[in-house]
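Researcher: Please predict.
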Amino acid sequence: MAGARPEGTGASQTSGTPQGTPPGAPAAPEQVTSELLELSLGYLYSAALHTAARFNIADHLADGPRSADELAKAAGVDGPHLFRLLRFLATKGVFREDDEGRFHLTPLAQPLRTDTERSLRDYIMVRGEPVFWQSAAQLHEAVRTGSTAFENVYGVPFYDHVAADPELGRAFNSSMAAFSETLSNDVVEAVDFSGATTAVDVGGGRGGLLRAILRRNPHMTGTLVDLEPVVAGHVLDTPELTGRWSAEAGDFFASVPSGADVYLLKHVLASWPDEECVRILRTCRAAMPAGARLLVINAMIPAGNEPHPGKTIDLLMMTVLNGKGRTRAEYEALLATAGFRAARLLEASPHASVIEAVVAD
């Protein structure tokens, strides 16, 4: 039954008491009230992060701490308002104010810089745009009707809207590349590619994962496949990869290049409902020779009440796309329907579990 927790999973359960309450101790009413009110205003943290990213505040702190007035002058914004914003973010560890009123970068603020290897600035920027805010505001309607909030607001599927707005499309593709960049090395470290010579990255965006694989495995070549506007901005054309890659515009519902040793589906299936996922998987299966592997890379939703990225992504999918987050069992069921057998699971990171699958006998 949907939503039921399997018996005997051993999953931890939370009591619903506020953070900081000792185990077994009753929560004070005022503590419950305070935490619930804080949760109800959570959107303000998203807005504050988006604002800090928009004005490149982290970049302005790269050379050392500065006061809000100094930062405001550098960013071209209002000093008192910026101070209040940074003070608010500092309550969650994003920036830190010292006793002299200067703000510092913190580990949580570092990814807001544009010049770091694991920058999330573009991702956070786009998630603060109206297409996401307005869709989230209609989440209640999606829950009432079983529909997709974005389509209720904009009248078309998300990807159709992005395709019709080149500026938004570029920003969205850049944001996804930024998110992918933070995870690609984790995946490459978790998966053994020593026995493979060719890879196809299906729906691979700008090719960040494929680039990481080819860098780590100089014996391999690879092909990136995605829609034309996406692959046009690929990141594969580097001296160290010369002659080892190709980038092809294509539709993974129709066909993908055949004959490779490894096929990659990273953060693809969560964007689609079950029927479309099976279509994508069958397209890959038709292209795979005997002995080839398929790597399905997504956050896997665990049992229990603990926070997990997969649960957050699932709500985002319900809001913006007609997809969903899934448990390991649900992904394995999709694979079986499409003619695959799940061979093993590799935990690269909470955002990127890897199911290694082969064509079923």
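Model: Residues 166-190 form the longest helix (25 residues).
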